[in-house]
Amino acid sequence: MITILLFARMEEEVGSSKIEANVSGKTIADLKSWMQATYSLEKELTQCMTAINEEFATDADVIKENDVVAFIPPVSGG
Amino acid sequence: MIQLTNDPIDIQAVVNQVTDRNCGAIATFIGTVRELTNGKKTIRLEYHAYESMAIKLLKKISQEVQDNWPDTNVAITHRLGMLEISEVAIVIAISSPHREAAYQANAYAMERIKEMVPIWKKEHWDDGSKWIGDQLERVAYKEGKPQ
Lengths: 78, 147
Description:
heterodimer; A: 78 residues; alpha+beta; Ubiquitin-like (UB roll); 3 helices; globular; B: 147 residues; 5-stranded antiparallel sheet; 4-stranded mixed sheet; 9 strands; elongated; molybdopterin synthase activity (chain B); MoaE_sf (chain B)
Protein backbone atom coordinates (compact mmCIF):
# COMPACT_ATOMS: atom_id res chain seq x y z
CA MET A 1 0.00 0.00 0.00
CA ILE A 2 1.02 3.60 -0.48
CA THR A 3 -0.29 6.73 1.16
CA ILE A 4 -1.57 9.63 -0.94
CA LEU A 5 -1.76 13.10 0.60
CA LEU A 6 -4.18 15.70 -0.75
CA PHE A 7 -4.30 19.41 -0.04
CA ALA A 8 -6.37 22.52 -0.63
CA ARG A 9 -9.02 22.18 -3.35
CA MET A 10 -8.13 18.55 -4.10
CA GLU A 11 -8.58 17.64 -0.45
CA GLU A 12 -12.04 19.22 -0.48
CA GLU A 13 -13.07 17.61 -3.78
CA VAL A 14 -12.08 14.14 -2.61
CA GLY A 15 -13.35 14.77 0.90
CA SER A 16 -10.20 13.44 2.56
CA SER A 17 -6.61 14.58 3.17
CA LYS A 18 -5.17 11.08 3.09
CA ILE A 19 -6.05 7.99 1.07
CA GLU A 20 -4.39 4.62 0.64
CA ALA A 21 -4.00 2.77 -2.62
CA ASN A 22 -2.46 -0.42 -3.90
CA VAL A 23 -0.37 1.08 -6.70
CA SER A 24 3.24 0.29 -5.81
CA GLY A 25 5.34 -0.47 -8.90
CA LYS A 26 3.33 1.99 -10.97
CA THR A 27 4.43 5.43 -12.10
CA ILE A 28 3.15 8.81 -11.01
CA ALA A 29 1.48 9.08 -14.43
CA ASP A 30 -0.35 5.79 -13.74
CA LEU A 31 -1.39 7.05 -10.32
CA LYS A 32 -2.74 10.25 -11.87
CA SER A 33 -4.84 8.18 -14.31
CA TRP A 34 -6.15 6.13 -11.40
CA MET A 35 -6.98 9.27 -9.43
CA GLN A 36 -8.70 10.76 -12.45
CA ALA A 37 -10.81 7.65 -12.99
CA THR A 38 -11.63 7.29 -9.31
CA TYR A 39 -12.20 10.89 -8.25
CA SER A 40 -12.75 12.92 -11.46
CA LEU A 41 -9.91 15.36 -10.79
CA GLU A 42 -8.74 16.01 -14.32
CA LYS A 43 -8.09 19.75 -14.17
CA GLU A 44 -6.49 19.63 -10.73
CA LEU A 45 -4.17 16.76 -11.70
CA THR A 46 -2.78 18.54 -14.77
CA GLN A 47 -1.96 21.60 -12.69
CA CYS A 48 -0.40 19.97 -9.66
CA MET A 49 3.14 19.04 -8.72
CA THR A 50 3.88 15.66 -7.19
CA ALA A 51 6.19 14.64 -4.39
CA ILE A 52 7.33 11.20 -3.31
CA ASN A 53 8.48 11.11 0.32
CA GLU A 54 8.72 14.93 0.36
CA GLU A 55 10.91 15.16 -2.76
CA PHE A 56 9.48 16.55 -6.00
CA ALA A 57 8.87 13.81 -8.54
CA THR A 58 8.06 13.58 -12.25
CA ASP A 59 5.34 11.61 -14.05
CA ALA A 60 7.89 8.93 -14.95
CA ASP A 61 8.98 8.20 -11.37
CA VAL A 62 8.00 4.79 -10.02
CA ILE A 63 6.18 4.44 -6.70
CA LYS A 64 7.45 1.88 -4.22
CA GLU A 65 5.64 0.07 -1.41
CA ASN A 66 5.07 2.34 1.64
CA ASP A 67 5.90 5.54 -0.26
CA VAL A 68 4.04 8.71 0.63
CA VAL A 69 2.89 10.50 -2.51
CA ALA A 70 1.65 14.08 -2.20
CA PHE A 71 -0.28 15.94 -4.87
CA ILE A 72 0.67 19.59 -4.56
CA PRO A 73 -1.71 22.05 -6.23
CA PRO A 74 -0.29 25.44 -7.31
CA VAL A 75 1.13 26.94 -4.14
CA SER A 76 0.18 30.35 -2.79
CA GLY A 77 2.26 31.02 0.30
CA GLY A 78 3.52 34.43 1.34
CA MET B 1 15.95 29.75 11.35
CA ILE B 2 12.83 28.40 9.68
CA GLN B 3 9.48 28.31 11.40
CA LEU B 4 5.80 27.69 10.71
CA THR B 5 3.45 28.98 13.39
CA ASN B 6 -0.24 29.26 14.15
CA ASP B 7 0.40 32.27 16.40
CA PRO B 8 0.86 35.91 15.38
CA ILE B 9 4.44 36.52 14.18
CA ASP B 10 6.74 38.57 16.39
CA ILE B 11 8.59 40.52 13.69
CA GLN B 12 11.37 41.69 15.99
CA ALA B 13 12.04 38.12 17.09
CA VAL B 14 12.60 37.11 13.45
CA VAL B 15 14.92 40.07 12.91
CA ASN B 16 16.86 39.19 16.06
CA GLN B 17 17.62 35.75 14.61
CA VAL B 18 19.78 37.30 11.86
CA THR B 19 21.40 40.12 13.83
CA ASP B 20 25.15 39.68 13.36
CA ARG B 21 28.00 41.98 14.38
CA ASN B 22 29.65 41.42 10.99
CA CYS B 23 26.51 42.43 9.09
CA GLY B 24 25.74 46.06 8.38
CA ALA B 25 22.38 45.42 6.72
CA ILE B 26 19.17 43.56 7.52
CA ALA B 27 16.47 43.50 4.84
CA THR B 28 13.03 42.41 6.03
CA PHE B 29 10.03 41.46 3.95
CA ILE B 30 6.66 41.44 5.70
CA GLY B 31 3.76 39.89 3.79
CA THR B 32 0.35 40.96 5.05
CA VAL B 33 -3.24 40.05 4.24
CA ARG B 34 -4.67 42.40 1.60
CA GLU B 35 -8.33 43.28 1.57
CA LEU B 36 -8.91 44.09 -2.12
CA THR B 37 -7.71 41.94 -5.04
CA ASN B 38 -8.92 43.08 -8.47
CA GLY B 39 -11.91 44.69 -6.80
CA LYS B 40 -12.85 41.58 -4.83
CA LYS B 41 -13.11 41.97 -1.11
CA THR B 42 -11.37 39.46 1.14
CA ILE B 43 -12.91 38.87 4.54
CA ARG B 44 -10.05 36.75 5.87
CA LEU B 45 -7.42 34.28 4.67
CA GLU B 46 -6.76 30.73 5.76
CA TYR B 47 -3.28 29.25 5.28
CA HIS B 48 -2.63 25.51 5.15
CA ALA B 49 0.67 23.72 4.61
CA TYR B 50 2.21 20.35 3.96
CA GLU B 51 4.24 21.20 6.99
CA SER B 52 7.12 18.72 6.95
CA MET B 53 7.84 19.33 3.26
CA ALA B 54 7.37 23.10 3.60
CA ILE B 55 10.00 23.22 6.35
CA LYS B 56 12.35 21.14 4.21
CA LEU B 57 11.94 23.45 1.21
CA LEU B 58 12.27 26.63 3.28
CA LYS B 59 15.56 25.25 4.57
CA LYS B 60 16.61 24.50 0.99
CA ILE B 61 15.79 28.07 -0.08
CA SER B 62 17.71 29.38 2.90
CA GLN B 63 20.70 27.33 1.77
CA GLU B 64 20.36 28.60 -1.81
CA VAL B 65 20.49 32.16 -0.48
CA GLN B 66 23.65 31.43 1.47
CA ASP B 67 25.23 29.73 -1.55
CA ASN B 68 24.42 32.67 -3.83
CA TRP B 69 25.14 35.45 -1.33
CA PRO B 70 27.94 34.33 1.01
CA ASP B 71 28.03 35.69 4.55
CA THR B 72 24.25 36.16 4.77
CA ASN B 73 21.99 34.98 7.59
CA VAL B 74 18.42 33.93 6.81
CA ALA B 75 15.29 33.70 8.98
CA ILE B 76 11.85 32.87 7.60
CA THR B 77 8.63 32.53 9.60
CA HIS B 78 5.31 31.74 7.91
CA ARG B 79 1.98 31.92 9.68
CA LEU B 80 -0.69 29.22 9.25
CA GLY B 81 -4.37 29.14 10.13
CA MET B 82 -6.94 31.91 9.92
CA LEU B 83 -5.70 35.49 9.40
CA GLU B 84 -7.61 38.75 9.42
CA ILE B 85 -6.97 41.70 7.07
CA SER B 86 -3.55 43.34 7.65
CA GLU B 87 -2.23 40.51 9.79
CA VAL B 88 1.30 39.32 9.03
CA ALA B 89 1.49 36.10 6.99
CA ILE B 90 5.24 35.90 6.43
CA VAL B 91 8.42 37.57 7.62
CA ILE B 92 11.73 37.08 5.82
CA ALA B 93 14.78 38.67 7.44
CA ILE B 94 18.18 38.49 5.76
CA SER B 95 21.34 40.09 7.06
CA SER B 96 24.52 40.65 5.08
CA PRO B 97 27.72 42.65 5.43
CA HIS B 98 26.45 45.20 2.86
CA ARG B 99 22.90 46.19 1.86
CA GLU B 100 22.83 45.15 -1.81
CA ALA B 101 23.10 41.44 -1.03
CA ALA B 102 20.39 41.68 1.64
CA TYR B 103 17.93 43.35 -0.76
CA GLN B 104 18.59 40.89 -3.58
CA ALA B 105 18.60 37.80 -1.41
CA ASN B 106 15.35 38.77 0.25
CA ALA B 107 13.53 39.21 -3.07
CA TYR B 108 14.99 35.90 -4.30
CA ALA B 109 13.79 34.02 -1.20
CA MET B 110 10.23 35.31 -1.57
CA GLU B 111 10.08 34.41 -5.28
CA ARG B 112 11.28 30.87 -4.54
CA ILE B 113 8.69 30.49 -1.78
CA LYS B 114 5.95 31.47 -4.21
CA GLU B 115 7.24 28.95 -6.74
CA MET B 116 7.51 25.82 -4.70
CA VAL B 117 6.81 25.79 -0.97
CA PRO B 118 3.65 23.74 -0.30
CA ILE B 119 1.60 26.38 1.48
CA TRP B 120 -1.88 27.33 0.28
CA LYS B 121 -4.21 30.14 1.07
CA LYS B 122 -7.93 29.95 0.99
CA GLU B 123 -9.55 33.30 0.37
CA HIS B 124 -12.78 33.85 2.22
CA TRP B 125 -14.37 36.41 -0.07
CA ASP B 126 -17.51 38.29 0.67
CA ASP B 127 -19.15 36.32 -2.18
CA GLY B 128 -17.83 32.86 -1.18
CA SER B 129 -14.59 31.01 -0.54
CA LYS B 130 -11.93 29.83 -2.94
CA TRP B 131 -8.49 28.22 -2.92
CA ILE B 132 -6.01 30.39 -4.73
CA GLY B 133 -3.63 28.70 -7.14
CA ASP B 134 -0.44 30.51 -7.85
CA GLN B 135 -1.36 34.13 -7.68
CA LEU B 136 -0.53 35.00 -11.27
CA GLU B 137 -2.34 31.87 -12.47
CA ARG B 138 0.37 31.18 -15.01
CA VAL B 139 2.01 28.08 -13.56
CA ALA B 140 0.96 24.75 -15.03
CA TYR B 141 3.86 22.55 -13.80
CA LYS B 142 4.13 20.79 -17.15
CA GLU B 143 7.05 18.71 -15.91
CA GLY B 144 5.18 17.86 -12.73
CA LYS B 145 7.61 19.85 -10.60
CA PRO B 146 8.95 23.38 -10.30
CA GLN B 147 11.93 24.65 -12.33
